[in-house]
């Protein structure tokens, strides 16, 4: 029973960490939409900038190149993978070398390979894109 509980906790924690930003963003958009509706019902004009911000769905942020975005995503996914791997390690340590705990601990740790590999791929793609941008910039300057 404790093995099943440890496995469920090991799988639930990363799922909550990954899904929480999406839920929070949806709640933020709902609150923003309710504010716009309340403002319109009171007869106040809605500034165009607010309507555009809502329709775009993202806050205006400084221009970030795709390469930098890829590197950031890769770093976050790699950190998530490290966290999942540490959960697996904690399960193993909590089991105190019990042979029945090794399989769930290794299973949770193996799950870390999925976001880890995707994160490493993002980092490599971002690095290659940075090199390509630098080459094209020097080619333009040299012409």
Distance from N terminus to C terminus (CA atoms, Å) equals: 70 Å
Total strand count, please? 0
Instruction: Round the mean pLDDT to the nearest integer and report it.
Output: 83
Multimerization status: single chain
**Structural class per helix/strand content?**
mainly alpha
Supply the number of helical segments: 5
Largest sheet: none
Total of domains: 1
Which helices and strands, and how do they pair?
Elements: H1 2-41, H2 48-56, H3 66-94, H4 99-111, H5 113-142
Helix pairs in contact: 1-3, 1-4, 3-4, 3-5
Structure description:
The chain is mainly α and 143 residues long. It has one domain (2-142). The protein has helices at residues 2-41, 48-56, 66-94, 99-111, 113-142. The longest helix has 40 residues, at 2-41. The radius of gyration is 23 Å and the shape is flat. The mean pLDDT is 83.
């Amino acid at each position: 029973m404790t093995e099943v509980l440890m496995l469920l906790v090991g799988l639930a924690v990363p799922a909550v960490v990954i899904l929480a930003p999406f839920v929070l963003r949806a709640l933020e958009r709902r609150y923003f939409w309710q504010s716009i509706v309340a403002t319109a019902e009171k007869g106040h004009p809605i500034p165009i900038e607010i309507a555009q911000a809502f329709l775009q769905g993202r806050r205006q942020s400084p221009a970030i190149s795709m390469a930098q975005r890829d590197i950031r995503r890769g770093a976050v996914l790699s950190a998530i993978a490290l966290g999942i791997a540490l959960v697996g390690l904690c399960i193993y340590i909590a089991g105190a070398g019990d042979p029945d705990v090794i399989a769930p601990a290794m299973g949770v740790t193996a799950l870390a390979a999925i976001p880890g590999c995707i994160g490493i791929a993002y980092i490599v793609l971002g690095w290659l894109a940075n090199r390509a941008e630098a080459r094209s910039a020097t080619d333009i300057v040299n012409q």
